[in-house]
Write a structure and sequence with these properties.
By secondary structure, the protein is mainly β. The chain folds into three domains: about 25-130, no CATH class; about 135-300, no CATH class; about 315-395, no CATH class. Helix content is about 15%, strand content about 40%. The strands form four sheets. Strands 1, 2, 22, 23, 24, 25, 26, 27 and 28 form a nine-stranded antiparallel sheet that branches. A hairpin with a 5-residue loop joins strand 16 and strand 17 (about 230-235). The radius of gyration is 28 Å and the shape is globular. It starts with a helix and ends in an 11-residue tail after the last strand.
């Protein structure tokens, strides 16, 4: 009986009793990159690879509230800007050390507890001065509309900043503002019309603006973010009105707790809106004027294996085939097909009759993998340059292989 169970388990592990399909993808940290550092220092290649390797792990940590930001390093792909960059920050709290990682196409940072990195540890004591991360987002009214226009290079003939709607904010900690919208019309609250939006910010003190604009087509847009171009949400046409008034809540939003706070109310009407509306409820205002849009803010903190994890999509991949004659970049669909194929290929010993035709380089963000490409009259083989494993690749027009 035990023998039968052993055979059964072996079949499961082999994915089909002799199918011999394997995952040939073993993307590894790049061996070369462009680096921006703060402060300027000399990092060894071993340390750079160590940092990038940390960032590929599954995150299990959250930054302590009291810490010192010691240093920051941004890694750029040396050749292909489309593959983006990775920013790593090194933090100290007591005798513990952390790094945060974020790719240029990611919304949130991921946090890892790490061993001390000697190059950073050699910095002077000022870099290790700890302070408590402030857990509030501060909003400060901007009365000078020209300041907003200049910062974001707005064209007054196409878009006008709505008075009393502009604020400058500071986000000293890691997290995101989750914005929800409620519409009250003619004395009742409608079902959700505008989808909730997530506006993330990263560790360290970040500044930006939030404001409303009226476009040339009379539609209203909410802008939120840093210069030079904030994220924009154009409200549906049902929120157009000849008269509009902003009732703004200026309190800071707490990063701790699950409650949400009302940030702004927009009263829209076919008639002039008079007097102080702050003390009136949205239901009462909607009965008088027609429509009230409430904008609520809920601050979210990254938590283990949720907001701190990497996104499921949005990855940028690139495949490049190089031969003596030319270099071929695969297009998007072909690249995806090739990656999918390499996730379940057959590992086969390459025949002695095969002839090398070039090299295949795979890239995803700041990782890479290279294969030597070999060809017989009827078969195509890829040999991993690091492991020397050979894989049979089904015939396809992924790239033009020179005839032997």
């Amino acid at each position: 009986m035990r023998v039968c169970w052993g055979i059964f388990l072996s079949c499961i592990l082999l994915s089909g009793c002799g199918a011999e399909t394997l995952n040939a993808i073993e993307l590894r940290p790049l061996s070369s990159y462009r680096v921006e550092q703060e402060p300027e220092m000399s990092l060894s290649e071993q340390t750079k690879k160590q940092i990038l390797t940390y960032c590929e792990r599954q995150p299990t940590d959250v930054l302590p509230k009291r810490r010192a930001k010691v240093a920051e390093v941004t890694f750029h792909h040396p050749l292909y800007e489309v593959l983006g960059s990775k920013t790593v920050k090194y933090f100290a709290t007591g005798n513990k050390r952390y790094i945060t990682c974020s790719n240029s196409n990611q919304l949130m940072e991921r946090t890892f507890s790490v061993k001390p990195i000697q190059e950073f540890e050699a910095l002077d004591e000022d870099h290790f001065r700890e302070s408590d991360a402030v857990s509030t987002i501060e909003f400060e009214r901007v009365d000078d509309i020209k300041q907003i226009v200049n910062v974001f290079n707005l064209n007054d003939s196409h878009e006008e900043v709505i008075s009393n709607s502009a604020f400058r904010y500071t986000t000293p900690d890691t997290g995101a503002i989750y914005v929800t919208f409620e519409t009250v019309r003619n004395g009742r609250t409608l079902d959700p019309i505008i989808e909730p939006k997530l506006f993330p910010f990263k560790s360290g003190e970040n500044e930006g603006y939030v404001f409303l604009t009226r476009r040339a087509d009379d539609r209203v847009a909410l802008r939120f973010g840093e210069e030079p171009s904030p994220r924009q949400l154009v409200l549906p046409s049902m929120y157009e009105a000849p008269y509009m008034k902003i009732d703004t809540k200026e309190e800071g939003l707490s990063l701790e707790g699950d409650h949400r706070e009302l940030m702004k109310r927009i009263i829209l009407s076919d008639q002039p809106i008079e007097g102080d509306v702050a003390k009136q409820t949205s239901l009462a205002l909607s009965k008088t004027y027609g429509t009230v849009l409430e904008i609520w803010g809920h601050v979210r903190r990254p938590v283990t294996n949720k907001m701190s994890s990497r996104p499921a999509d949005g990855e940028t991949r690139l495949a490049v085939f190089e031969s003596d004659e030319n270099t071929i970049w695969l297009d998007g669909p072909k690249t995806q097909e090739l990656f999918d194929e390499l996730f379940h290929v057959k590992m086969r010993e390459m025949p002695t009759t095969a002839v090398q035709t070039g090299q295949l380089h795979l890239y995803e963000e700041l990782t890479e993998q290279s294969f030597d490409v070999w060809k017989t009259e009827t078969e195509l083989y890829l040999v991993d340059e690091k492991t020397s494993r050979s894989y049979e690749l089904p015939s396809n027009d992924y790239f033009k292989v020179n005839q032997p």
